[in-house]
Amino acid sequence: MRLDKFLKVSRLIKRRTLAKEVADQGRITINGNQAKASSTVTAGDELTIKFGQKLVTIKINNLKETVRKEEAETLYTVLKEEKLNN
Question: Which residues form the RNA-binding S4 domain (predicted)?
């Protein structure tokens, strides 16, 4: 599944266009490698996303084309959240 689609389906980022912008700015890594919006993600991958002053690391548990809002959090596990001091 494409990275931007996974971020939208899992509701980590609300819109796919926004997910694409974040990826294009170099704020997402997959297993330590810089990611593009078109990068392919699989179950077991580790994503690190920089949201403003926060660095969130998640592990992908599952991939689904569509999920209900209540089930969205089952697609990933938050491994750690760090506050960035700039």
Answer: 1-64
First CA to last CA distance, the chain: 33
Contact indicator for 45, 31 with CB cutoff of 8 Å = yes
Distance CA 59, CA 5 (A): 16
Q: For residues 84 and 55, is the Cβ–Cβ distance under 8 A?
A: yes
Q: What is the pLDDT of residues 24-75, one digit of tens each?
A: 999 999 999 999 999 999 999 999 999 989 999 999 999 999 999 999 999 9
Query: In degrees rounded to 5, what are phi and psi of residue 64?
Result: -140, 150
Q: Looking at residue 86, what is its pLDDT?
A: 61
Tell me the two tokens of residue 23: 């990826």
